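Pilot study result, target chain (326 residues):
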Amino acid sequence: MKSVPVKKPFAFLGKALLVILACFAVAACSSSGKKKEKFAYVERPVETLYRSATRELERKRYDNAIAYFEEVERQHPYSAWARRAMLMKAFAYYQGNDYEEAVTAIDQFISLHPGNKDAAYAYYLKAMCYYERIRDVGRDQDYTNNAVQALNDVIRRYPDTEYARDARLKLDLTFDHLAGKEMYVGRFYLKQNKHIAAINRFKTVVERYQTTSHVPEALHRLVEAYLELGIIDEARAAAAVLGYNYPGSRWYEESYKLFKERGILAEGSGKPKSKPAKLKKASETLDEADMSNQEALEPPSPDELERLEPRGNAPQSPIDEAREPL
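Predicted structure:
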């Protein structure tokens, strides 16, 4: 007796699925093969490879430029072109906003060629990789701290270069950002009535970031926090420093109002002056504030931090030279 075959209802679907998967596999293999063929190892003159890399860089095809620079390193590893290509590859990563890869390439260049004439630019480019990722004050400041360290490296190692001059300006802006972070957290603690925690943040700004634009507000917030705690002497000390250094500021006026509202103005204290006399000596600190002299004196106004233009105005790099033959 013949056995009757049993029809499997999903057999056809299973076969169709296998066919589709096979097609995808073939397509994937062919596409990966094309990528490999694009930069397969074909011995080419170093000048040709490097010229192709710089041409792709100028056209903002950063992935292609990186691949050509890597070919220069791979095919001609002991040439001067390879050293230059290593730094140019880092620059291409940087231009493509791939900062982590840029830092890795820069660290490789520095470790292999620490005495190279372009080492100063390598350190500067590394600092920019952190500087351009600085986040707003409400977020984590790891990149800001890394930027401070990298900018200080440039200044310490190459103090007389154009990179160091630009790094000093950017370092001031970076400190201003870190001070802004401390103020952000301090204000939060103050609103939550956590006065001790707030005071610690504001004192950090006054003591560590003295040249930033946040110091006047930090001094006022110290006055505010100390008065809330009933520590009048400490509030007077902070107000004295504020009045001594920033008498025409909005924050001195606010502190003056706080003392007036509580009826604790010191004898001889006056209203904030718009044009007081110039200081004849260095500014006082919190610890050195003279409680007997509450009258405000105007110091030389601190220079405003210069706002830097976009990266186009940064110091000229070796990149322009890199487009020329050795």
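One observation from the pilot: The CA atoms of residues 156 and 164 lie 8 Å apart. A full batch analysis is planned for the follow-on phase.
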